[in-house]
Description:
Layout: E1 2-3, E2 6-9, H1 12-15, E3 22-25, E4 30-33, H2 39-47, E5 51-55, H3 61-64, E6 74-78, H4 82-86, H5 88-95, H6 103-113, E7 123-125, E8 130-133, E9 136-142, E10 151-155, E11 160-164, H7 182-193, E12 199-202, E13 208-209, H8 210-234, H9 241-245, H10 258-278, E14 282-287, E15 290-295
Parallel strand pairs: 4-5, 5-6, 6-7, 11-12
Antiparallel strand pairs: 1-2, 2-3, 3-4, 8-9, 9-10, 10-11, 12-13, 14-15
Helix pairs in contact: 7-8
The structure holds zinc ion.
The site of zinc ion has 4 residues, from loops.
Amino acid sequence: MRRGNVELIPGKNRGHYPYSNSIFIDEGPGIVIDPASDEERLLALKKNPGIGIIINTHYHEDHFLYNHHFPEAELWVPELDAPAFESLETILDYCGILGLPDEETWRSYYLDKFNYRARKPDRKLKGGEKLQFGKTRMEVIHAPGHTPGHSGFWFPEEKVLFVADYDLTAFGPWYGDRVSSLEDTIASVEKLRKIPAEVYWVSHGEEISREQAEGRFAEYLKVITVREEKLLAFLKTPHTLDEIVDQWIIYRKEREPVYFFRFAEQAMVKKHLENLLRRGLLRTEESDGKERYLKND
Ligand SMILES: [Zn+2]
């Protein structure tokens, strides 16, 4: 898929985890956004025409998988996510992993499976910045929530919007890190939806046309409402956090590896509980030393 000098490089495994799609900007020494798609293809681009800059949309492992192949290229990342690229401690902290019993498992997962290499970014990108590479213009669209710095990229000449990890899949948005925000996710998806693109490129999955996009954006946001409705229905009777997590409201069923998915299920359910408490739709009560959540009438 190519428009002007901007190309979508499909990720292996149809662009699904542990891979994601990359964007290649074919201008001089090229630019790659999220080098986590296809190792052979990325190494071939490194040889010819050469890669001068790599950009990450945010700090997640399925987006920096092959960053380590480009130590000589400049690294540009969103300002608010930059600390996570600079130290393993910070990325573990942002993800909510520091201090967990299986912290060491996560550490080796980042280092060995995803080639995490602490590195100081050469440039920190801010929302609204307009960049120019040769003939290609690109605007940084700060779209926080998924992570605080998560950014999409808008190519106004080509009318391509790279929405990055708001991938418009049937699973719905993901906001499971300690520093993720459910409210910011909703606002960011609404913001991206308003940009008048002809095609939408996503980190995971295939190109989406303007015609498909409206329905896909609506369904994507609807997933959040459905999760909330299921949670409120379950909390007509009081339940502990563990009991709520056992419902698998986010992932719909228990998945392997359980330590990984149960952790994410709990993190995302907690975002909903905090949101519902703030809106006065839930309350907590304590009995036999346990805290339980209950829907307000
Ligand atoms: Zn992500």
